[in-house]
Design a protein that fits this description.
With 271 residues, the protein is of the alpha+beta class. Helices cover 13% and strands 19% of the residues. The protein has one domain (16-268): Protocatechuate 3,4-Dioxygenase, subunit A (Sandwich). The strands form three sheets. Strands 1, 4, 9, 10 and 11 form a five-stranded mixed sheet that branches. A hairpin with a 7-residue loop joins strand 5 (176-177) and strand 6. Bound molecules: fe (ii) ion. Fe (ii) ion binds at residues 9-10, 186, 189, 191.
Length: 271
């Protein structure tokens, strides 16, 4: 299969000031305390702290103009279209895209896509992209000295079944450095996109792994205001879905709207 470039890693923009981790952690703590105080004062704050300074390029990464309503039918004349038959079952297994087996810890990640009433969201195009086990993306901007894996591209997709379920087989991604500050490392994560029923509805977020020691240090994870929302991005180890002699199981449900909605990236606005 041809190498498909995955999306740009977060290291596209090295911050010019290169603060220390200690400074970044102090900034995160101060902003969390400030937002908690404002909420305690009765202020309504968004679930994401925009212009979150510890995430140095965040100003470039969210809309600064008022959102505009668009006609989905007009968008569909231009945007990608797909159907269930366009997605092959094998695309949900990122370990089968090349002649050999990729290196690393094989995992299966499964869960359900749900709406705010807990109803399954069937027939959803779910796309994932991720670094390899060494923390390296196949992307020309990711040149840090970790090996590429010739047997791992790091992109997969599927369509949820009638019960809203999805299941990917892949390799546990490694943490990687990203130049936000000195010695900045992203916690291991898998990027997820849920397409919706039209391109204008696409939601993008990240799934993390339980117990990652980098959580407290990471400005992207901490730009999400509440611990509850941050926790909802962390998959649970699921021994019932660990496949004997084959893979570690993780479970992660995605709620696409309502008060329990899984946090998604600000590019798409608040829901
Ligand atoms: Fe990433």
């Amino acid at each position: 299969m041809a190498e498909t470039p995955t999306a740009a890693p977060e290291s596209l923009l090295a911050a010019p000031d290169q603060a220390t981790q200690q400074q970044i952690t102090a900034e995160i703590q101060a902003l969390h305390e400030e937002s908690e105080a404002r909420v305690a004062n009765g202020e309504q704050l968004p679930r994401t702290l925009y212009d979150f300074a510890p995430y140095r390029s965040s100003i470039l990464r969210h809309p600064t103009k008022n959102p505009k309503l668009v006609d989905p039918e007009t968008i569909e004349l231009w945007s990608p279209a797909y159907g269930q038959r366009d997605v092959a079952a094998i695309e949900a297994d990122l370990t089968l895209q090349h002649a050999g087996e990729p290196l690393g810890e094989r995992i299966t990640v499964h869960g359900r896509v749900l709406d705010s009433w807990g109803r399954p969201v069937a027939n959803q195009l779910v796309e994932i992209w991720q670094a390899n086990a060494a923390g390296r993306y196949i992307h020309q901007r990711d040149q840090h000295p970790a090996p590429l894996d010739p047997n791992f591209t790091g992109a997969g997709r599927l369509v949820t079944n009638d019960r809203g379920e999805y299941r990917f087989t892949t390799i546990k991604p490694g943490p990687y450095p990203w130049k936000n500050h000195v010695n900045a490392w992203r916690p291991a994560h898998i990027h997820f996109s849920i397409f919706g029923s039209a391109f204008t509805q696409r939601l993008v977020t990240q799934m993390y792994f339980p117990g990652d020691p980098l959580f407290a240090l990471d400005p992207i994870y901490n730009s999400i205001r509440t611990q509850k929302d941050r926790d909802a991005l962390v998959a649970a180890y699921d021994h019932d879905h660990t496949v004997p002699e084959f893979s570690m199981g993780y479970r992660w449900d995605i709620v696409v709207d309502g008060p329990s909605a899984t946090w998604t990236e600000p590019e798409e606005g608040e829901h």
